[in-house]
Amino acid sequence: MNLVQEMLVDYNVENTWEQMDRVMALIDRVAERINHADYGYSGFFDSTKIREPELDRMYEFDATILEDVETFQSETKELKEELESGNFDNSYQRVFSLRRTLDDIDKKFGDRRSYMLKF
Known about the structure:
Elements: H1 2-10, H2 17-35, H3 52-84, H4 91-117
Helix pairs in contact: 1-2, 1-3, 2-4, 3-4
C-alpha cells in the first residue's frame, strides 16, 4: 500500500490523495485491532468457556474476514498494475473500493467479540 500511495503521488493523481490517506489510517486501525484481538479460546479458569462447535463457528466467522482480506489484496494488486501501466482513469474508484473493503473488514472485526460472546 505504501508503494501504491507513492505511485499516486509521483504520478500526480491528486484526486486520490485524500481518500488514500483515509485508507492508510484505516489500515493502521484494523492492524491494531487484529494485533490486540482475542484468539477464540478460553483458559482453564476462565468464566466463559468455548466448546468445539462454537470454536468451529468462530473459525467460519474468521474465514469470512480472511476472504475480505484476500479481496483487499487482489484489489490493491490490480490498482498497482493499472498505475504501472499508466492507466489513471479509475484510480479514485479503485482507492474508494479499497476503503469500502477495509470498512467491511473493520466492521466484521468489530463484531467479532460480540459474535464470540453469543455462545
